[in-house]
Amino acid sequence: MEKDFLWGSATASYQCEGAWNEDDKALSNWDVYLHENKLENGDVASDHYHRYKEDIKQLAEGGQNAYRFSLSWPRILKDREGTVNEKGIAFYRDLIKTCLEHGVRPFVTIFHWDLPEYWQEVGGWLNADVCYGFERYCEVCFQAFGDLVEDWVTINEPKYFTSSGYLIGNYPPGHQNPEEFIKAAYNVMYASALGVRAFRKGGYKGQIGIVHSFAPVNGIDDTLKTKIAMRYADNYANNWVLDTAAKGEIPFDLLCVLSQKYDLSFIKEEHLKIIKENTVDFLGLNYYSHILVKPYTEGETSLTVNNTGKGGKNTVIIKGWFEQIFDLPGAVYNEWGTQIYPKGLEKGLLEAYEKYHLPIYITENGIGVREDVSVEQVEDDYRISFMNDHIAAIFNAMDKGVEVKGYFAWASFDLYSWKNGMAKRYGLVAVDDDLTRRPKKSYGWYKKMIESDGKLIERKTWD
Ligand code: BG6
């Protein structure tokens, strides 16, 4: 492996920090949404806010040389005017310094979904002012941490949180409105470009990218109809984020189709210019699974998500565009209905690199499982095999020339899974109800694998 290859793991502020109302932190939209709906929340989560030193030490002792985490916007800025919360800055500076003291590279996501409620109150991502609020927030982050951090991500998974919040309706603000989804999605991509512009203007050291919920698209056959369905699915799932961030172009065929049905007058020439001029340095791809599609047959648009882990698949049917399909012979799923499909990662990496020619980090990859964490050690052989096979897929893609520069397991330790609570565990380290940390078997395996420079990976090929 290249000497500077990053072997790390990842978390996100809302999912692990807890301390939701401490040290002058403002409320986030997730605080309010989960409280109001009386749902399991991240008030305490993994208590990383108070235990980050222990967590980072453990991560370093696990042989990892990078930690991907996110900054909490409402912890850093108190209001829409952009008043800085010095306590929030002090917290993250210390967290970052702790990483550096342990030889761990801080890989910083500026926004991982916890929007300040003061922005949600005025329309959230439907209000273009939020884009400028985000720009200001980015500037504050670069100024406060730019001397210590060299790897920046503007936004985590624009597709996933906007479709969940504005189309499917299972994330805040809980709307189901295609028009709103399109507008929010556009504003998020515009905000990301403003963040890149602020980074370039300030002349900060390092690199800046975006993280995408990468869902490579496969079709059930090679017919033209299926290929058209695949293009629709790719535009829906991937292209509007990746093309826009990497090439500065919103897919033109997507705009043509959308403009027949929706008013796109919020798209302004001056925004498009900023998007075009401020593309990213690298792509962060979060890979959990692929999507298999067939041509659309009948019925209304329908999107379902399994947030219970009790049966049911995450299904997308978009009227006139495509239908996602499941249950092909031999397919294996986790309890939340996500197919385990490492082959999709290899193929997806080849496609993404061919299209964008940018360095790639796998910024998340992992498996959510119900686990009894009261035991001395969780024997998570399924996680080891999941990671082995996905890393093998990455190695295959690298052998074919794809420039992958790092891998981050999701997650560093157990944390709150959006809407699935603590029941769906992803960590390499178990976090018990009393917040005790105990490394799982996978933590030790990952350490040995890193020490072996990847040689411990059982290589695989797929037909
Ligand atoms: C990604 C997110 O979508 O997937 C993470 O960036 C998230 O924040 C992870 O936790 C796993 O998804 P979930 O819904 O199973 O927690």
Can you give me a brief rundown of this structure?
This protein has 15 helices and 15 strands. The chain has 463 residues and is α/β, with parallel strands linked by helices.
Listing every helix as H and every strand as E from the N terminus to the C terminus, the arrangement reads EHHHEHHEHHEHHEEHHHEEEEEHEHEEEH
Would you tell me the overall average pLDDT?
97
Oligomeric status: single chain
Count of domain modules: 1
The CATH level-2 architecture is identified as Alpha-Beta Barrel
Here the CATH topology equals TIM Barrel
What global shape is seen? Answer: globular
Describe the structure.
By secondary structure, this protein is an alpha/beta fold. It has a single domain, classed as Alpha-Beta Barrel (TIM Barrel). The chain contains 15 helices and 15 strands. The chain has helices at residues 13-16, 29-36, 48-61, 73-76, 86-101, 117-120, 129-145, 158-168, 178-202, 224-247, 252-261, 269-277, 342-356, 381-399, 441-451, and strands at 6-10, 66-70, 105-111, 151-156, 207-214, 217-219, 282-287, 291-295, 302-304, 315-318, 322-324, 360-364, 404-410, 429-431, 437-439. A hairpin with a 5-residue loop joins strand 14 and strand 15 (437-439). Helix 3 (48-61) packs parallel to helix 5 (86-101) and helix 8 (158-168) packs antiparallel against helix 9 (178-202). 49% of the residues are buried. The site of 6-O-phosphono-beta-D-glucopyranose has 14 residues, from loops.
